[in-house]
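Inputs:
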Amino acid sequence: MTDAVAHLHVCITCRAGLPLEPGGVPMGADLYAALAACAEGAPVVLRGVECLAMCAHGCSAAISMPGKWSYLLGGLRPAMAGDLMDYARSYVASGSGTIMPSRRAASLRDMIVGRVPAFDAGMGEAAE
Ligand code: FES
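Outputs:
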């Protein structure tokens, strides 16, 4: 058992290009709620944020952890919450944070929009 946790920031204002009725709930908020519903016991700190500047890729999220690549995730939907939480578990268990597409659920194969090196390590080009 490890105390290591990943931080998963979820844009709660994403509309995924869909119109939003007055008083309606953005799909990003639905994604956040779906993730919260399956986060119990997961090594994840879930945080809602207003816009990750990836609006063209909504719904969007970002996963990060000290010493690992941070990943920008796009094209997400509430129905992917369970797969995304499994991905987060794999991310925490990995050495560098890199989870190859073949090791992700099929729904998440194309979700990576970008990545950022760890702040505290010279990870450069040495990815898993
Ligand atoms: S509104 Fe979700 S990334 Fe901008």
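Remarks. The first strand starts at residue 6 and ends at 11. The radius of gyration is 14 Å.
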